[in-house]
Amino acid sequence: MLTFTKTPETDKEVKNMVIYTLLKNRGKMSRSDIANITKINMVSISNYVKSFIKKGLISEKQTGESSGGRPPILVDLNKDNVYAIGMHLTDSSVIGVLVNSTVGVVNKLSKDPASGELAEVVSEAVDSLKSGIDSSLLKGVAIVSSLSGNVDSVSLETKIEEKLSPRTGEAKLYMAPVSLACAYAEISRESNFPSDKIIYSFRDVGECVLWENFGFYNWQDHDQDEEGLSYLKPWDDIMGIRQRAKLIIEKGVGTEILHLAGGELKDIREIDVINAANKNDDVAIEILEFVGMSLGVRLAFLVNVFKPKKLILGGGVEKAGRFFIDPLRNSIEKLSMQAAFKKLEVKSASLGEEAAAVGSAALVIREIFMEG
Question: Can you list the domains of the chain with their CATH numbers?
Fold first, then answer.
């Protein structure tokens, strides 16, 4: 399977993303308006638009308003001509979405991963999602996995590809890290032209993704010129909510957490701690506050290094609410430079369980328009 392009590598790819982002976020507009906003010369805009139209990615719409003379022709995304599927595999569900070129969800489903051989469950889900469209308009399928345990990811990827290839025709097949998919799901809803610098923090141990100039960076890109990318690496799970809860309970401390986990220490999940905190369990609240404060210390450093305009908290920690986010925000405010913090907006992710599926499908659409 293919991997996604993290950063535009050519001037053409950057300009393709500029035009796509503008039309996606603002809707139909004239070529001259695009040129005025982007500061790209009119001849280049006309050539890029012509290429997009030729490939069926955008189309000419009704004429715009004019104060006199010939009214301008407007162009817009051809949203009913380009589709992508995103699939998120978890221990409890297979979540799938079909999106159009505006990343509007056209169809979605959830299946039990134990209902059959997993590769077959995925391929049946893809068949169901694309059943209402012309199959030739499906441009790609992206798979994201959050499966735990001893899963042979290479073998699973091969089996899924073998099942999907005959059923998806010329649609390209991709694999994506769950952190990247979740990040793009949220960032694609936030990012306006010009491109804001955004940090997305995934889960309670802060695997971070940096969005800048229409591209993504994570800790594995630390050999790039950008200083500080290695600090995007997540902390060890020992710093997370689940492990801290286990350590405290092993000491014999009484808490509602263990009851919510069915009485088994090994079965404790982050959501059990969050649910206990919402029942005013003091131990659970202390755990969320401590982990939030600790993660905030790390994120404050990233704010000082990268000076983002937005920091988005996702991957499930957003469900912890004020118990987690208030101490996190306090740490950032105390430890980040005042100039950087004043320009920073801290917010929680909003897409919930569909984030990875939506984000992976959106990455397919991004790939299509980046290529132009």
Answer: 11-77 (1.10.10.10), 83-175 (3.30.420.40), 195-351 (3.30.420.40)
